[in-house]
Amino acid sequence: MIAVLAFFVRVFSVIRYESVIHEFDPWFNFRTTRFLTEKGVYEFWNWYDSESWHPLGRVIGGTIFPGIMFTSSMIKWALDFLAFPLDIRNVCVFLAPVFAGFTSLSTYYLTKECTNRIESGLLAALFIAIVPSYISRSVAGSYDNEGVAIWALVNTFYLWIKAVNTGSILWSVLCTLQYFYMVAAWGGYSFIINLIPIFVLGTMFINKFNMRIYVAYSVFYTLGSLMAMLITFVNFAVIKSSEHLASHCVFFIMNAFVIIEYVKKNLQAEQFKALTRLAMSVSIAIFIFAFIFLTLSGATRFSGRAMTLLDPTYAKKYVPIIASVSEHQPTSWSSYFFDLGYLIIFLPIGFYYCLVHKVTLGKLFLGMYGVLATYFSCVMIRLMLVLAPIACIIAAIAISEILRKASKSVRVYLTQGFEDSPASMMGEIDAPKKKSVEQASSSVETSSKKGKKEAAAQKQEVRKQKSKSRIPFDAAIVILLFIIGTLQGYIYHSTQLASEAYSSPSIILSGRKNDGTRYIIDDYREAYYWIKQNTPKDAKIMSWWDYGYQITGMSNRTVLVDNNTWNNTHIATVGRAMASNEEEAYKIARSLDANYVLVIFGGMSHYSGDDISKFLWMVRIAAGVFPQVKEKNFYNRGHYRVDNMMSPTMSESLMYRLAYYRFGEIRTRGDKPSGFDTVRECEIGLKKYDLKYFREAYTSDRWIVRIFEVLPLPNRSTKIYTRFQKSSPPALKGFSSQKVMAALPKI
């Protein structure tokens, strides 16, 4: 039932709008999946995509994580084989909700394996089914890698704990196969390949390491590293990348630890100390040499995203293209409550039961997972998705323990009746005192033969012992009511967000009129359809990289940059064009062979996510490559403005000229002058101007999408021929233009 709930709570977008792909990256995934389904595996691996990153292009097979594409294609092929035809678009739309149900099942088994309590597993499954953070990435239409990767993440951890608890090679191999799918599906696999080695290292420090862990990690490391190298996009990064360094180091440390333990048992104390000193000296020397060599040679290094996780200020200083993405920003406190709801209240209690109270290997793993995920979620909003599963599990453990104690107190009170209310108003017994209570109870039975008075006295003593360790009945009732109210609020909060906040496709906008009725804004799809119907098939579209995947996916037109962001220089060139004046921007557009320029403008329709809002990031990215672009030139007295106080550089930029072209003639509000920007809440400073090198080709109904044609160069051959006719000798007068142009190089 929980798995079914996880599916249906994610289909609000289809009910309210239609079966459509959302956001930006999902459009690339959908396009590649359709290609794989129609062309086959070999064509897919060798696909050179000339419609992206013009004129560079992109080799698709070697630059993607293909897990989600192969999953959808295999489902499509299986349905076709069973004579149940289903369009590949609908397979992609509903894939994430289906896997959300699988995630609920895997979360149940992981929690049950770690705690050995069914009720904790059921609560964790319920929480993960409707947690807003996970819903945001798994609604119907959100065809992104995370839709299947979170299930792979949780299931990998479940199989790992199973392998650790049993020491079975079979479970270790299954864990490795699941890890291989995770590597194929999402770049977040690096979290797994770092968390598991940290767990193994931690068990050595707290003296909980055993041979079952040795067997599990040996199989996981060796087989997992080899299988990860089968993914083309990963390949030798398994060996060279610093993100895999922890797995290598822990593997050698673990084997050294086992060898040392074996030698320690078979050598005398003095011999062992001498051998230890020698081994430590050699190990330190090797480590220092390897560290210096790898650092100076550049054979291994941290990626920009990895450095951002270690130093949250790194991206803003050195890699602005990473910092420009909204989901890469640091997480605010409000985001935790928004994406986790009331679960955050119970996390400290859950950490106590995982790391302090009756610690097992499973609980220790959950605690370490929670600590690391909490840190990474603070650094980047996107990584709230990694925190969501463990937050659900830890909160479920806390709530199940509280409910068990409180409900036991109520049950004892109702069983004993009101006559023993002083003793029965207390709750459950602590585990260490159970044995003494049972002994006292048995002594009561034997002493009953000696006399009723002695038996009554001992019975009263038993009740006193119970009363010292139970939750008071009144407190238990309050706790139960509080948890019931909290869970009710959590379910309402999650369902409301699933319905309103996370089920609106970014390509289809909506709003409400004064009477409450809803209206649809479909400017994106209208504009992309116009491009498809009214531009040449070989047309090149210049836009900011956010919209590249959607343009190629819906319009089938070539773009200069897209959401892959692999070439920072190419993106910076587009940013420089947007930040330059019209004449300079025209030269850049011609050099890039662009035929049209697309900009997003929200000043007419209250759409705050437009290109004017993103413009400073374009400037910063361009400035990182082209020093002549200065961010300070776009400020006036330290403020970024578009009114009459804006800087001259801003008013001359191509972005301003295209976004606000003819906007000065429009009245957006009855009580405001023409040219009033509803997003920036100001009247624009420059209203009347003409474009010299660009021509307005299309503006959507609510002005959200604006497309401008790059005008062709003037016909120079006519001017050359005219000048030649005026200055040529009389003998050449009257020659045709073709003959004159042919003779021109010789002359």
TrEMBL record:
Coiled coil: none
Keyword flag Ribosomal protein: no
Primary localization class, coarse: membrane
Record Pfam families: STT3 (PF02516), STT3-PglB_core (PF21436)
Compositionally biased tracts (Basic and acidic residues): 453-463
Signal peptide segment: 1-17
Catalyzed chemical reaction(s): a di-trans,poly-cis-dolichyl diphosphooligosaccharide + L-asparaginyl-[protein] = N(4)-(oligosaccharide-(1->4)-N-acetyl-beta-D-glucosaminyl-(1->4)-N-acetyl-beta-D-glucosaminyl)-L-asparaginyl-[protein] + a di-trans,poly-cis-dolichyl diphosphate + H(+)
Any one GO CC term of the record: endomembrane system
Domain of life: Eukaryota
Family under the similarity heading: Belongs to the STT3 family.
Name used for this protein in its record: dolichyl-diphosphooligosaccharide--protein glycotransferase
